[in-house]
TrEMBL record:
<keyword id="KW-0121">Carboxypeptidase</keyword>
<keyword id="KW-0732">Signal</keyword>
<keyword id="KW-0378">Hydrolase</keyword>
<keyword id="KW-0645">Protease</keyword>
<keyword id="KW-0812">Transmembrane</keyword>
<protein>
    <submittedName>
        <fullName>Carboxypeptidase regulatory-like domain-containing protein</fullName>
    </submittedName>
</protein>
<dbReference type="InterPro" id="IPR013784">
    <property type="entry name" value="Carb-bd-like_fold"/>
</dbReference>
<keyword id="KW-0472">Membrane</keyword>
<dbReference type="GO" id="GO:0030246">
    <property type="term" value="F:carbohydrate binding"/>
</dbReference>
<feature type="transmembrane region" description="Helical">
    <location>
        <begin position="286"/>
        <end position="307"/>
    </location>
</feature>
<dbReference type="GO" id="GO:0004180">
    <property type="term" value="F:carboxypeptidase activity"/>
</dbReference>
<keyword id="KW-1133">Transmembrane helix</keyword>
<feature type="signal peptide">
    <location>
        <begin position="1"/>
        <end position="19"/>
    </location>
</feature>
């Protein structure tokens, strides 16, 4: 009987081990440059970040002669995601978030990278979307600016020669909301050296403008021009007009009704001016954290709505 018991225990241990092996996950694929002619990248370092509730860890490997990589013995199920990344041509590329489930413990994906270029002339004129909220004694301005790269190369810059985004004169309390790498406020502009990958790249910020008089002018200048400019102003009884933009009626946003102006293209070194009359004068009562959250919701949600309206093929 003892030998039978030991045999049963051994079988159970082996069965458990087999079940564990069966639940071990695998993430595999290739690193491929999408710059023509497209081809796998050999001997390329690849990182896999495992993000869990309270911690994260990173695994590393190198692609083989066929540009292939493979991460094995990964945990399956649970609340965790996996993110592939690789640094190529001085730019860090990341893949989509992956999950390993008991029903699909193996994922095969390609990680796309691009050859670098320093030629900014290939970029299309930027598209700007701004939301202006009115508070007693202040304006809260949130901006999403989109850069479009129609080529198959990533346009790179450097801290010595960064991308430049002019701020409205008098902007203060600038908050960087999304898309930036190492932004700095310098001489009335935001500068940053982030890469512009093929397709669309968006950055967002919010700032405050003091309203010391009931009439306020908010100018924007575009050194490289602009393909399209959309400005929404909260419809709270303030008279509004815009030089260089046409009125487009009113739209409903997540916090109320907004007056809409738009126009474009805007020539290089030209600008537009938003003019407001009847701005209430008082100390700004908005907490900074609340204002930043509101700006992100407004700019992000409304910008996506306008992008879909202009480009029905754009993803939701």
């Amino acid at each position: 009987m003892l030998s039978v018991a030991w045999s049963c225990c051994a079988i159970l241990v082996l069965a458990a081990a087999c079940a564990a092996d069966a639940e071990e996950g695998v993430i595999q694929g290739r690193v491929v440059t999408r710059t023509a002619p497209s081809h796998p990248i050999v001997h390329q370092a690849v990182h896999l970040e495992i993000v869990e509730r309270a911690a994260s860890s990173v695994l590393d490997t190198v692609t083989d002669a066929g540009g292939r990589f493979r991460f094995t013995r990964l945990p399956v199920g649970g609340i965790r995601v996996f993110v592939l990344s690789a640094e190529y041509g001085g730019v860090r590329y990341s893949g989509e978030r992956l999950a390993l489930l008991p029903a699909a413990p193996v994922r095969t994906v390609d990680l796309a990278v691009y050859e670098p270029s320093t030629d900014r002339s290939v970029l299309r004129p930027p598209v700007m979307f701004a939301v202006v909220e009115v508070a007693p004694g202040a304006l809260r301005v949130s901006v999403v600016q989109r850069l479009e790269n129609p080529t198959d190369r990533t346009v790179v810059s450097s801290p010595r020669d960064p991308l430049v985004f002019p701020l409205p004169p008098g902007a203060r309390s600038v908050r960087f909301l999304a898309g930036w790498v190492d932004p700095r406020v310098d001489g009335g502009t935001i500068t940053d050296a982030f890469p512009v990958t093929p397709g669309r790249t968006e950055v967002a910020y919010a700032c405050t403008l003091a309203a010391r008089q009931s009439e306020v002018a908010v100018p924007w200048v575009f050194p490289d021009g602009a393909g399209q400019v959309d400005v929404l102003v909260a419809d709270v009884g303030v008279e509004a007009a815009a030089d260089g933009l046409a009125p487009r009626g009113a739209v409903e946003g997540p916090t109320g009704r907004f007056l809409h102006w738009s126009g474009g293209p805007i020539s290089p070194r030209r600008g537009v001016v938003l003019r407001l009359r009847g701005v209430p004068l008082a100390r700004d009562p908005w907490p900074a954290a609340v204002a930043a959250g509101l700006a992100l919701i407004l700019a992000g949600g409304l910008a996506r709505s306008f992008a879909r309206a202009r480009d029905p093929a754009a993803p939701a």
